[in-house]
Amino acid sequence: MKKIVLACxxxxxxxxxxxxxxATLLDANGxxxxxxxxxxxxxxxxxxxxxxxxxxxxTTVAPEGLTCPYVSGVPFMTGMNRVAAEKAVLDVMAQ
Length: 95
Fold this sequence. Notes:
Pfam families: PTS_IIB (PF02302). This is Galactitol-specific phosphotransferase enzyme IIB component. Keywords: Sugar transport, Transferase, Transport. By secondary structure, the protein is of the alpha/beta class. Helix content is 45%, strand content 22%. The chain has four helices and four strands, in the order βαβαββαα. β1, α1 and β2 form a beta-alpha-beta unit. The chain is globular, with a radius of gyration of 12 Å.
């Protein structure tokens, strides 16, 4: 089970939007029931990575010193560079 952390400024609005899009992507690619999504404020993201999260997707700048892979969540909101972001998420799931 992969743990995916979705972070935004407060852990509510934009992370919820991105969480829905990421879940749809993962389910459509055969990963249903193989991941857990946790939403949080960006200020909590590093702690989740330190505790063993497999991926951080954030709609803000990544915190320094991350111990897990990071993918920008902005492409999931804007559509710009979305293919590359989706590939990066799927690459983590394939590991």
